[in-house]
Write a structure and sequence with these properties.
With about 260 residues, this protein is an alpha+beta fold. The chain has a single domain, classed as 2-Layer Sandwich (Alpha-Beta Plaits), CATH 3.30.70. It contains eleven helices and eight strands. Strands 1, 2, 3, 4, 5, 6, 7 and 8 form an eight-stranded mixed sheet that branches.
């Protein structure tokens, strides 16, 4: 029944408080709906699809390019599988360890989802990423020792807005030489913890993703969003009196400062 899988347990921080606020604010309710809709398995899967750089395509060739892209994405989908389930404000994603593309697409989806939640809803993620025995039906039940471990990493150890990665999981990912492009996706802190954060995710997409290789116009959006993080977080810190929330945002500021020198011009 169980399979060897990479599994991520992800929690959206501050979601409960947002729900309470939505009772008096229709705009907040709309943000919640947008966030939940983006969590649907079919929408998360779309995050992995290649896109067109319309600025470089002549108008009379767009239709043909779109048809070619649709076939490409359909063929790519056949080569990997990400299983996704969500409940309330939590998401579980998993991939078989013997499928290289699936493991790396899982990271790609997590990264794009994290950036979208931030840019559209100012929401942050905390999670745990591990490897082990898991039973997972796409959009359905998910359980097993790996699920328990991923939840423990998220709820007890991650603490800050980051995805904490088990050492065994890092080893599993690094078994593939193609993982080298994802090294910028992760960071090791001075305690030895390996994690991914909003900052490291932006670093990866700006420096090493397919967008970077293609020089896609969206890179400028990513850079603008990254370099605005500090100001937005400073403003948020001033809005809160809860030391627990302030501590998390303060950690983000130190993480941004750590990653900033790595961002390619």
């Amino acid at each position: 029944m169980y399979e060897n899988r990479i599994v991520a347990f992800i929690d959206i921080l501050g979601f409960g408080a947002l729900v309470e606020e939505s009772a008096e604010n229709i705009d907040v309710a709309q943000r919640i709906l947008s966030a939940l809709t983006s969590m649907l398995p079919e929408n998360l899967q779309k995050e992995a699809e290649a896109t067109l750089n319309y600025d470089r395509i002549p108008a009379d060739e767009v239709a043909a390019a779109e048809a070619t892209l649709a076939k490409f994405n359909e063929n790519v989908k056949k080569s990997y599988q990400i299983d996704i389930s969500f409940f309330s404000d939590c998401i579980v994603l998993s991939a078989l360890t013997d499928n290289v593309m699936s493991k790396q697409m899982l990271l790609d989806i997590l990264g794009k989802f994290s950036m979208r939640l931030w840019s559209e809803n100012r929401l942050l993620l905390r999670g745990g990423l591990t490897v082990g025995k898991l039973y997972h039906v796409n959009g359905g039940p998910v359980f097993g020792p790996a699920m328990n471990r991923a939840y423990y990493l998220e709820s007890k150890l991650a603490k800050n807005p980051r995805i904490l990665i088990d050492p065994d999981c890092v080893t599993e990912l690094r078994k593939e030489t193609s993982f080298k492009v994802f090294e910028s996706f992760i960071q090791e802190d001075d305690t030895g913890d390996v994690y991914s954060s909003l900052s490291t995710i932006y670093r990866h997409f700006i420096n090493d993703s397919s967008f970077a290789w293609a020089g896609a116009p969206i890179l400028q959006d990513f850079k603008s969003e990254f370099f605005s993080l500090g100001k937005i977080i400073d403003k948020r810190i001033a809005e809160f009196s809860d030391d627990r929330i302030i501590e998390k945002y303060t950690w983000m500021l130190s993480d941004i400062a750590l990653i900033t020198p790595d961002i390619k011009p």
